[in-house]
Design goal:
This protein has 327 residues and is of the alpha/beta class. Helix content is 39%, strand content 27%. The mean pLDDT is 96.
């Protein structure tokens, strides 16, 4: 049996504690060697809650000492992209395999810079677009593709948060990249044309984004994101010849064949084999893909070289909004 991969984690915020730490702690072939967090209370809580022996974070550059002392097999750097970008570049320059949350930077320049550094230093990477790893959505996609290629797909992402979003990243980079990436995964192929429309609904920033993505394999993807809706929803449709799936990632959904109106129900927890958040949402599967890429010296499905194309589509939609006077 091979030795466990030695992992370090940057950050102990809500996302890291909710999904990343539990997923890694649930894997037998992984050991969390240390964490780095500059907030003392978060650092102490994560160290205690997840049984991690070593911690760093006395100053903003303490992560470098952690890497130099421990020489880990991989780093998970989970936090705001405008804060962590310099840390990400340093890790890539030091050839440390790197797992990050979306988005991979807040500009196209940053995304392409990260991709260049990963390629230049031959480093395994991953952006946590976990919805393409959802067990129930993956099963539905497999069932559809068994009938033939995907003809068209739909991704809807709604939230009830009609208030100004004034951080370093906008709604596009915060959330819509998830929907874009999910459409890319379902449709396959390369996006060749984008038609889009955006709006401001009661806010100074763009909070409604819709687009049609045309792929070189003939598939068409329909995207609609709204933060002025009445509830939170992330769901998808997948269509192939004679088959149609409608799936809500964290709940489940139905697969319909040949005009059947009843459909076959797929339960998200049942398909995942667990009710654990990190299992149902695909976070654990995403991490497994990244770790496998390290062991096999290959690439994960959502490596930087792939994820940069999601960023390109996001930037295209924003550029179209600017040119049309919608931005």
């Amino acid at each position: 049996m091979s030795k466990p991969l030695r992992i370090v984690i940057f950050g102990a915020g809500s996302r890291a504690r909710q999904a990343i730490y539990p997923a890694l702690k649930g894997m037998n072939d992984v050991k969390i060697e240390a964490l780095c967090e500059i907030d003392p209370a978060r650092r102490a809580a994560a160290t205690r809650d997840f049984g991690i022996e070593k911690s760093y974070g006395e100053n903003v550059f303490d992560y470098r000492r952690m890497i130099e002392e421990l020489r880990p097999d991989a780093a998970f750097a989970i936090g705001q992209p405008h804060i962590l970008f310099d840390t990400w570049t340093w890790l890539l320059e030091h050839k440390v395999p790197l797992f990050i949350e979306k988005p991979m930077g807040v500009t196209m320049h940053q995304a392409r810079s990260l991709t260049h550094l990963a390629e230049e230093h031959d480093v395994q990477t991953q952006v946590s677009f976990q919805r393409r790893y959802s067990p129930v959505a993956s099963k539905a996609l497999e069932m559809c593709r068994a009938r033939g290629p995907i003809t068209h797909a739909v991704c809807r992402f709604y939230k009830c948060e009609q208030k100004p979003f004034l951080g370093a990243r906008d709604h596009m980079m915060d959330d819509t990249v998830h929907a874009i990436d999910t459409l890319r995964w379902m449709c396959g192929g390369k996006v060749t044309r984008v038609e889009s429309s955006v709006r401001r609904v009661g806010t100074p920033d763009i909070n409604f984004i819709s687009a049609v993505l045309h792929f070189d394999n003939g598939a068409v993807g329909h995207l609609i994101n709204s933060w002025s809706s009445g509830k939170r929803l992330f769901d998808v449709e997948m269509h192939a010849p004679g088959i149609y799936a409608q799936i809500e990632h964290e709940v489940g959904g139905f697969v319909y064949r040949d005009g059947d109106l009843k459909g076959e129900y797929l339960d998200a927890i049942e398909v995942a084999g667990s009710d654990r958040f990190e299992k149902v949402t695909g976070v654990s599967a995403a991490i497994e893909d990244f770790l496998t890429s390290i062991r096999m010296e290959g690439r994960s499905m959502s490596c930087f070289a792939d994820a940069v194309h999601t960023m390109e589509i996001a930037e295209t939609i924003l550029a179209q909004a600017m040119l049309s006077g919608q931005a």
